Amino acid sequence: MTSSTTSASPLVAILMGSASDADKLTGARDVLQKLGIAFEVTVTSAHRSPARTVDYVRSAEERGVRVFIAAAGGAAHLAGVVAAHTLKPVIGVPVDSTPLAGFDALLSTVQMPPGIPVATVAVGDMGARNAAYLAARILGLGDAAIAATLVTERDRLEASVVEGDRKVKSAWAAART
Ligand code: RP5
After folding, report:
1. DSSP calls for 40-95
2. Strands of 39-43's sheet, edge to edge?
């Protein structure tokens, strides 16, 4: 099975239900790249290519993938199907690709029956980014280098808040004069 892979052995697999989802998942790609976590990406559908999806999950596990990120829109069963075929953590990203703006995908991703969990993140780009951060936190439990990268990233975020505070105070002070 073909998949686009970063150079190192992939720890994270990003699956999406359609090529039309790709532009909505670039945040997950960018965060994993920023954190230096090797990943691969695959388009496969729970409904249109069910056997391919199951084959992919098994082959990804054999290649050493430890966390799956599964994104789909509409009646979004991809993450649940992945979770049914692996014991690795599965993070579901509801994609806002339908007239219901992702609410349908949110419900069908998050409402899993007990025993087959999907860690469901927010709809759309916020969720895509947080899926990558959550994957990094899971991997960081057993990888000191990834954990250290997350500390650096958290420090960067805090610094950006402080910088935002400085800018807003400065702009509002200027508006008073
Ligand atoms: C889902 O249906 C996909 O994840 C996508 O979000 C949505 C629409 O897919 P296309 O009809 O654009 O291929 O399975």
Report:
1. EEEE--TTTSHHHHHHHHHHHHHTT--EEEEEEESS--HHHHHHHT-SS-EEEEEE
2. 4-5, 39-43, 12-16, 67-73, 90-95, 119-120
- Alpha carbon of 143 to ligand 1 centroid (Å): 35
Instruction: List residues bridging with 5 in a β-sheet.
Output: 40
Mean pLDDT over 101-107 rounds to 98
Q: Ligand 1 mean position to 130 CA, how many Å?
A: 21
Instruction: Please name the residue whose Cα sits nearest to atom 12 of ligand 1.
Output: 20
Token output for 14: 């990003």
9 lines ligand 1 (CB under 6 A): no
Q: Model confidence over 39-91: pLDDT tens digits?
A: 999 999 999 999 999 999 999 999 999 999 999 999 999 999 999 999 999 99
pLDDT, residue 6, reads 56
Which protein residue has the closest C-alpha to ligand 1 atom 6?
A: 73
